[in-house]
Amino acid sequence: MVQPNSMNKTVGQFLLYFILIIGAVISAFPFYWMSISSLKPNDQILDGRVIPQEIVSDNYRILFSNDPVGLFKRIMLERAGQITDEDDSAESDEREPLILTTGEIKIHSVELQWEPLDGAKSYTIYKSESEGDIVEDEIEYTEIATVSGEESSIIIKGLDEDSVNYFWIEAIMPDGSKQIPNTWSTEVGTLKSADWNFVRAFRNSLFAALVTVFIGLFFDSLGGFAFAKYNFPGREIMFWILLGTMMIPTQVSLVPTFQIFQFFGFTGKIISVIIPMLVTVFGMFLCRQYMMSIPDDLLMAARIDGAREFQIYWNIVLPSSKPILGALAIIRFLASWNNFFWPLIMLGGNPKAWTLPLALSKIEFSHGIPLRGIEMAGSFLASVPIFIVFFMMQRQFIEGIIMGSVKE
Questions:
Q1: Angle at 9 between CA 6 and CA 11, to 5 degrees
Q2: Count helices and strands in the chain by DSSP H and E runs
Q3: pTM score, two decimals?
Q4: Helix (H), strand (E), coil (C) string for the chain
Q5: Of the four, 11, 29, 64, 277, which is 20 to 30 A from 380 by CA?
Q6: How far is the C-alpha of 302 from the C-alpha of 310, rounded, in Å?
């Protein structure tokens, strides 16, 4: 006969496991949705299907393409049935003043560019639109803007996505005559081939994260070792002052830090996002708290055997601190890998130095279409190194506990 206490214990364990499983599913579902959405066509991501109706690799092809804008345009036109595989891809790159904004390719903005004419006083931009795809013989244009003769481009926003838009540019010369400059157009989108490169951004983030982890662990552990094992005047006061700096908001030091980096010419360079993270008070605090548990007798024995201070640090303290170094490595890698605000300030003007979070933030709209599929693909690939580092450091964390040289 089953005892009531045993039955209650079994039911309690069942409920606990059930709640844990539900929590795990809820926590893992966003990652599953992100990974599966990266394999959907861009127009099917919000269809609500947990299992995709169609699996494609278009989003990953665009990410790793040398011309993401051109490939995106061609894929969308293929899906809209406007071009086929036999069409010459070079023809799609021709720029004409006539902007088609019907079908799946919906252009909300366009940048008009023209070849400057010597002596031009100003340029007048005219626009007309009509329904459908048929070009009318007679088109009535309306003046929409006038720019100085020094300008050579203008961005026109708020285009009707269901109409065909025509543009006409006239140059006003000093004698009052009008001339028509050589004109072309470029669809305005956030995703630009010249500025955006996923592989380059991934490489920049990986470089910054690895340098931050390895050099940062060295400095943090060295500082923690000094505060934990050396008695020097003002040690406690200095330590508490450092801890106090952790309560100062980052925004307070933002402008002074930017001015210092600007003075040394670090703006727009990847080094500007590495230097501020090489030493952290939080890292020194963690290392100091852990290293205080290492027996002083062990260090004294090493000194009696003739070991120098750096040898003691390198050969005894560091191996004994593997658990905390493994945990700190994970924290440092995540902080560097997900860092967005500071790179946005320091690297925003140099696309070649963009880190991955900054580059992914530039994938918003192209030709009026939300690029959700490309965002999902980029976010999925960006999460892969995080899992690798976590499992790698988790193993090191366990090994550090088992193989630590100090045992109580």
A1: 110
A2: 15, 10
A3: 0.69
A4: CCCHHHHHHHHHHHHHHHHHHHHHHHHHHHHHHHHHHCCCCHHHCCCCCCCCCCCCCHHHHHHCCCCHHHHHHHHHHHHHCCCCCCCCHHHHHCCCCCEECCCCCCCCCEEEEECCCCCCCEEEEEEEEEECCCCCCCCCCEEEEEEECCCCEEEECCCCCCEEEEEEEEEECCCCCEECCCEEEEECECCCCCCCCHHHHHHHHHHHHHHHHHHHHHHHHHHHHHHHHCCCCCHHHHHHHHHHHCCCCHHHCHHHHHHHHHHCCCCCCCHHHHHHHCCCHHHHHHHHHHHCCCCHHHHHHHHHCCCCHHHHHHHHHHHHCHHHHHHHHHHHHHHHHCCCHHHHHHHCCCHHHCCHHHHHHCCCEECCEECHHHHHHHHHHHHHHHHHHHHHHHHHHHHHHHHCCCCC
A5: 277
A6: 11
Reported as a pLDDT band with limits 50, 70 and 90, residue 160 is low
Calpha distance 6→13 (Å, rounded): 11
Integer Cα distance of 295 and 400 in angstroms: 17
What would the mean pLDDT of 203-221 be, rounded to a whole number?
A: 95
Q: What sections of 86-234 are H helices per DSSP? A: 198-229
Owner of token pair 């071009």 = 83
Query: Residue 20 corresponds to which tokens in the numbers above?
Result: 């844990």
Lowest-confidence pick of 54-63, 218-227, 380-389: 54-63
Q: What 3-state class would DSSP assign to 184?
A: strand
Q: Which CATH architecture has domain 94-187?
A: Sandwich (2.60)
More confident of the two residues 88 and 173: 173
- Name the average pLDDT for the chain: 79
What spatial distance separates the first Cα and last Cα of the chain, rounded to whole Å?
A: 46
Residue 16 corresponds to which tokens in the numbers above? 């606990």
Q: Where are the domains of the chain?
A: 4-37, 94-187, 198-403
Query: What is the C-alpha to C-alpha distance for residues 293 and 99, in angstroms, rounded to an integer?
Result: 71
- Domain 198-403 CATH (choose: 3.20.20.210, 3.20.20.80, 3.10.180.10, 1.10.3720.10): 1.10.3720.10
What is the token pair recorded at 401?
A: 């506990």
Q: In sequence order, what are the beta bridge partners of 178? A: 172
